[in-house]
Design brief:
This protein is an alpha+beta fold. The chain has four helices and seven strands, in the order H-H-E-E-H-E-E-E-E-E-H. Strands 1, 2, 3, 4, 5, 6 and 7 form a seven-stranded mixed sheet that branches.
Length: 158
């Protein structure tokens, strides 16, 4: 097995690289031709797809960096790397675990686990409202439910 600490350092460096050409060079040097990456959000087959995932992470998490979070545990051709995504010098936003599988001294498969798994945030779409329609929400009137109505609907005694 290659020097796993160096391999893990280069792996995280590739996720942190914001220059597309430099990131692609890191991916080409680090991953096998038939490499695969999978986590709860995405699956990528091949170097180009893996580099695309990294580019997407760069756009989705601007200003955050991937860093190791603990000691790397390795045996045979497998390693377990715990990492954090955080602002430089700040607290972790996401903590992850990567299982690195090597072949020919390069990454062959990586299986990622995330805690917490980021959920997509809906992006509001501007909508043209008809004249006279407002997005303002009127003040809520106190809710009044006739005695027994809710209980009758739920089939329970008051």
């Amino acid at each position: 097995m290659p020097d796993i600490d160096e391999l893990a350092r280069r792996y995280l460096a590739s996720w942190n690289e914001s220059d597309p050409a430099a990131r692609r060079a890191l991916v080409d040097a680090l991953w096998t031709d038939d490499a695969r990456y999978a986590d709860p959000i995405v699956s990528a087959d091949g170097r180009q797809a893996i580099e695309d995932v990294m580019a997407t992470a760069q756009r989705r998490f601007p200003g955050l960096v991937y860093r190791p979070a603990g000691k790397i545990d390795a045996h045979r051709h497998a390693a377990r790397l715990t990492w954090e995504l955080a602002p430089p010098g700040g607290p972790a936003v996401i903590i992850g675990l990567a299982v690195l599988i090597t072949a020919r001294d390069r990454l062959h498969r990586v299986y990622g686990f995330l805690d917490p798994v980021p959920v997509p945030v809906p992006v509001p779409v501007p909508v043209a409202l008809p004249v006279g329609v407002s997005t303002a929400v009127p003040a809520a009137a106190p809710a009044t439910v006739p005695t027994g109505t809710l209980h009758q609907e739920l089939n329970v005694d008051p």
